[in-house]
Amino acid sequence: MQLLVLKNIFDLKTSQKIPTKLKDKITNATVEFISLDTRAFELVCGDRFINFAQTLFDVGKKLSDAQNINVVDLLPQLTTVSVSFCGIALFHLTEDLQLLVFTLGCYPYDQDNQTSIRVHQVVDSKLMEYHLSLDDSKFVVCENENKMKSSFKVCCTRIGCSIHYLSKQLQHCFTTDTIDKVPVNCDIIQQMFRCIRRIVNHMRRAHKQSKLPRKLQ
Fold it and tell me: Which domain of life is it from (predicted)?
């Protein structure tokens, strides 16, 4: 089934005939990548992935005469691709209690620091592009981190993110035994969570071990 899906993905019209052995080699490597790293098959057919693969291919052609080139040297380090983003959306409740959501955008945060003042300034600047502004009549829903609390403590009314509260409830349900000296009483689901976590950890260790030149006992 996996090979069939991948063959459908890679059966695209090309300008020249690709040898079957080479195409099968790429297909097998893709199956291994998706299966072992538990990725979605749609990952390898998205426009961004195709652009990434084409870029690697073009660079490889220019380096074809070079010796001892390791593909790892071509890939960026994780620390160099770490980019913060600022997402802004508007929520409007109509008179008949219908909630309208308008996503303004998800903007790269290119400031030199992430102080509360600077975060507020970035949000203000993006709102100004739409002739909008914050004031005491506006409500801001954001994360419950101290930095975000400080960023929106003036010129608006801050509301804690409900998703954060729900996540905390799930965290307590899975990992906490007592809250305020009161038992949580989630023994069954916590036992299931521990079993799943052990399975996931085992799969990760097995995957890492399979890449080693020698197996560890």
Answer: Eukaryota
> Side-chain half-sphere of 194: how many Cα atoms within 13 Å?
8
Phi, psi of 185 (to 5 degrees): 60, 50
SS (H, E, C) the chain: CHHHHHHHHHCCCCCCCCCHHHHHHHHHHHHHHHHHCCCCHHHHHCHHHHHHHHHHHHHHHHCCCCCCCCHHHHCCCHHHCCCCEEEEEEEEECCCCCEEEEEEEEEECCCCCCCHHHHHHHHHHHHHCCCCCCCCCCEEEECCCHHHHHHCCCCCEEEECHHHHHHHHHHHHHHCCEECCEECCCHHHHHHHHHHHHHHHHHHHHHHHHCCCCCCC
* pLDDT tens track for 106-135: 888 877 788 888 888 888 888 888 888 888
Token digits for 204? 């990760």
Name the pLDDT band for 42 (thresholds 50, 70, 90): confident
What φ, ψ does residue 57 adopt, rounded to 5°?
A: -65, -45
d(CA 153, CA 90): 18
**What letter represents residue 186's amino acid?**
C
Q: What is the pTM of this model?
A: 0.43
- Given a cut of 60, whether residue 1 has pLDDT beyond it is no
- In this structure, what are the phi and psi dihedrals at residue 132, rounded to the nearest 5 degrees? -120, 160
